[in-house]
Amino acid sequence: MVNFRLGFKTPATYLNCQNPDNDPAAGLGGEEHERGVQVQKNATVIAQVTVHTDHPFWESFVHDSPAHFDQLAALATKDASGNYNVTMSATTGVDYTHFKFGALDLPWRGCLSGYTPPNSNPYMGFDSLTIPHNPAGSPTTSMRDYTDYMSYNQSTQGHLNSDGLCFVQRHYSSPP
């Protein structure tokens, strides 16, 4: 067993959210749902903020990527009581494009029988898409390490009415 203690310092505002409750109204462009909350005269309309806590564990910045925990378990350290623990500080400086367990490459593994790794690498490594990985780069233009990667994905966890995607306005040093 591995205990996780992860705290994110990623203040964000969620704007122009799509709303699945507006269906069958068409979304803008290629969006799945029309944006916003449609208030009805003399009727109650519920708008639910949904927080998807799986986002920091995704293998890519692609929405709904498979989540993984092996890369965090590989960073766990044993305390005086014999418990294995991992905190955010353990992710600082970790190369999210090539995870290791000690000196060994961490292999891809999935819990679902139909899981297929996202690339042909024999080792686990996550994809930040168009945002470059640069350990010495600026946090406003690149992903430096696994802390940046998880924080960026975590900042996307706010949705409207379960699956309504929103524009994320980040209020911390990050790429747009």
Strand content: 15-25%
Shape assignment: elongated
How would you state the average pLDDT, rounded?
95
The percent range for helix content is: under 10%
- Which spans of ≥5 residues are poorly predicted at pLDDT below 50? none
Q: What can you tell me about this protein's structure?
A:
The chain is mainly beta and 176 residues long. 7% of the residues lie in helices and 16% in strands. The chain is built from 2 helices and 9 strands; from the N terminus they run βββαββββαββ. The protein has helices spanning 70-73, 146-154, and strands spanning 2-5, 12-15, 49-51, 77-78, 84-87, 100-101, 104-105, 158-160, 167-170. The strands form 4 sheets. A 3-stranded mixed sheet has the order 1-5-4, with no helix packed on it. A two-stranded antiparallel sheet has the order 2-9. A two-stranded antiparallel sheet has the order 3-8.
